[in-house]
Amino acid sequence: MKDEMLKLGQHARHASRAMARAEPGAKNRALEAIAGAIETQSDRLVEENARDLARGRDNGLDAALLDRLELTPPRIAAMAEGLRQIAALPDPVGEISGLRYRPSGIQVGHMRVPLGVIGIIYESRPNVTADAAALCLKSGNAALLRGGSEAIHSNTAIAECIRQGLESAGLPADAVQVIGTTDRRAVGEMITMNQYVDVIIPRGGKSLIERISREATVPVIKHLDGVCHVYIDDRADVAKAEAIAYNAKTHRFGVCNAMETLLVARGIAEQVLPGLAARYRETGVELRGCADSRALVPAMQAATEDDWHAEYLAPILAVRLVDGLDDAIEHIAAYGSGHTEAIVTEDYTRARRFLREVDSSSVMVNASTRFADGFEYGLGAEIGISTDRLHARGPVGLEGLTTQKWVVLGDGHVRQ
Amino acid sequence: MKDEMLKLGQHARHASRAMARAEPGAKNRALEAIAGAIETQSDRLVEENARDLARGRDNGLDAALLDRLELTPPRIAAMAEGLRQIAALPDPVGEISGLRYRPSGIQVGHMRVPLGVIGIIYESRPNVTADAAALCLKSGNAALLRGGSEAIHSNTAIAECIRQGLESAGLPADAVQVIGTTDRRAVGEMITMNQYVDVIIPRGGKSLIERISREATVPVIKHLDGVCHVYIDDRADVAKAEAIAYNAKTHRFGVCNAMETLLVARGIAEQVLPGLAARYRETGVELRGCADSRALVPAMQAATEDDWHAEYLAPILAVRLVDGLDDAIEHIAAYGSGHTEAIVTEDYTRARRFLREVDSSSVMVNASTRFADGFEYGLGAEIGISTDRLHARGPVGLEGLTTQKWVVLGDGHVRQ
Questions:
Q1: A379 by DSSP, 3-state: which?
Q2: Shortest Cα distance from B265 to chain A (angstroms)?
Q3: How far is residue B281's CA from residue B315's CA, in Å, rounded to a whole number?
Q4: Which of B402, B408, B411 is most worth mutating to test chain A (most A CB atoms within 10 A of its CB)?
Q5: Which of B172, B281, B337, B344 would disulfide-bridge B15, Cβ 3.0–4.6 Å?
Q6: What is the pLDDT of residue B259?
Q7: Where are the alpha helices (DSSP H) in A233-346?
Q8: Span A85-98, mean pLDDT?
Q9: B376–A106: do the CB atoms touch at under 8 Å?
Q10: Do B408 and A362 touch (CB under 8 A)?
């Protein structure tokens, strides 16, 4: 197993050098060709996927997991369309910025370059294979993809389309390698091959991500919790507050940028909370409140300490009254996960303080936390949302899969 | 020990929040006050340093180490001057960039923010205590500093000046904590306190850095080898080639950006190598060449495979003839450490290819590798040079001690 993985790593490293110097046109032709192969081989993808589904049913996978695993013709078409959208994005590689003359006479600037080899570890959805491959390819990286064992036939079939596309564009087929074994030790090797892998991006449940962070010696870009807060300040516009708090909770429940705790300043609670509570109830959202908020909305259950820490990913919302901005910032610092927080206020100074003092990957004024998303931010696509601090923070698009090197231009300059 | 370190970590985390929102004026006043305290307490620093020196002599430290350890009045004045220079740099924290309207109507951009708590582990030079503290402070971070045990009295005395300066500016004294114990287990705790430390920067010998990278669970920004190359292309200007190759090797020997291997295209070797070899010999540089280069300069020793890997940090130079650009790029990919490489050429296409295809933290055309330095690049100061790929690459200044979060400004916007 170790030898097999080292061989894949070696191939990836070798391919990464060709990818780093590949022209934008070649990369885009590969993406178009992969999209074409996925479309023309749609029937085969459905067949291979049927094998995964059958085995999944035999193994007793639940309906939600089977749904995530399934490839239908419309889903396959959407996968191809996603590839074409990534082809249409600007190429980040080679961009030179900040080239300035220094007193010594040299010109110094930055050039954007690929990270090298990116290892992506993910769970059931087979479309991640195409998405992740496309983002790595477009950003000039080589990729090692390790999907869930339950999707192995689907992923292998998609990998074959990717291989064909790369070859038809004259790029190394090893630029994207899907790990074909379901042996779990492969992951252990992949996350410790520091000589061949530059960064690991795990996508999936919290236990997967925690295990990988703990065991990896390769740097990891990861997403842990999304315990997002909306704070309604006592100088909020009530209509905006209701719209944002309602949208942040109910637009989608199972997503990391959904609000999980609503903080309301005491001075405005009586005005906004009863109305909001009624709207939440109509939508089937269960409310769990502090004692003070329950005095205003007696139908709420009592929140426990655990509720302030909870990422429900479900129609449940924790509600707490706070004294004001300082109290809200303290609550977020104590219980938040550093993902996304929003303030609703018309007060200029408080808005500025919230933006500056809340330490999260996205901080917002008068907008729904649901906007924390690569597409909404204009990245064109996203490989994930990072809750780490180093390198990439928040939604990670093509730029997050690159780094910068220094370029120095001289005319025979030497150091005095 | 564990409890003690966790307490320091907790204090650092707490102080980091106050530092993140500190005004530029307060941070600069603290830096000026620290500089003042260092100057007025110069005598005491010399006394405390004398204790370290005496113990160092008793423990048989060699002359070079004792020299690095020594604080003289001029060195103390330089330390204070360094603090004032850092105070004069622009404050990186809070800078908002790229704020753009999205089709949804929200405005999205980046805000530069501190990393949080930075742990710095270093060896003998006590001036690093003041330098590192100043860079962390200016960039809005809290710092945990762990110097060499041989400098413990000097570092503790400098720490006291830092504490006074922070307090006089109304900033938390715990924003810079110098670890007062010489117990080696303190390092082990520091590099695994992920809840309290956001990044570790080791500065010192390779064995220290390797040990820390291996054992740390906190992300590390590090500098390993500097096996730097100059490639003299056959379309080089001979005068520029000689000036650059001579300067890159002989300007200083013991520095990471000194050239260690000179690659010369066969087509120009006869023109440049004998003259250069004579100049190197006059300066006392020992040359170790491949068979082909020795045919041109018979006085050279024969290089072995080890020489292509060597970071001499000494007046020794490996010399190899190559067929041309491709061969040079291959040699650098095989033996380089990704630090700094330069091409000397008048050929436009080859210069462009070298810049794009050589994967090092600094790539240069017609300039000496000795320019790879934070001051030369205009960073104002540097905490070190990173040979890592993620987050910071090459010279790391104040910006490398910060990260960016997303800011979103709306007017009641919700996701459709």
A1: coil
A2: 18
A3: 10
A4: B408
A5: B172
A6: 98
A7: 238-250, 266-282, 291-296, 305-309, 325-335
A8: 96
A9: yes
A10: yes
Which H helix or E strand runs over A206?
helix A206-215
Convert A169-184 to b/e letters by CB count within 10 Å (16 or more is b): bebbebbbbbbeeeee
Which chain A residue's Cα is nearest to B192? A214
Q: Closest partner residue to A410 among B102, B357, B367, by Cβ?
A: B367
Taken in order A403, A360, A367, A381, the sign of the CA dihedral is positive
Residue B222 · residue B201 · CB < 8 Å: yes
Given a cut of 80, is residue A124 above it in pLDDT?
A: no
Q: Which long-range contacts (CB under 8 A, 24 or more apart) does A42-50 make?
A: A42/A73, A42/A76, A42/A77, A44/A157, A45/A71, A45/A76, A45/A154, A45/A157, A45/A158, A45/A161, A46/A71, A46/A72, A46/A73, A46/A76, A48/A153, A48/A154, A48/A156, A48/A157, A49/A126, A49/A153, A49/A154, A49/A157
- CB A377 to CB B21 under 8 A? no
Contact criterion met (CB < 8 Å) for B100 and A376:
no
Residue in B20, B104, B237 nearest the CB of A412? B237
Residue A212, Ramachandran bin (φ over 0: left; ψ between -120 and 50: alpha; else beta): alpha
CA distances from A359 to A387, B94, B144 (A): 11, 12, 20
Residue of chain B nearest A393, judged by CA positions: B405
Reported pTM: 0.93
Structure tokens at B169: 């500016």
Tell me whether residues A357 and B237 touch, CB distance under 8 A.
Answer: no
Q: Give the pLDDT of residue B113.
A: 97
Of residues B248, B371, B414, nearest to A106 (C-beta): B371
CB contact under 8 A, A408 and B364: yes
Residue A114's pLDDT band, with cuts at 50, 70 and 90, is very high
Of B113, B116, B378, the CB nearest to A108: B378
- Lookup result for tokens 């603090």: B83
pLDDT at A181: 82
Residue-range domains of chain B with CATH: 2-222+396-408 (3.40.605.10), 228-371 (3.40.309.10)
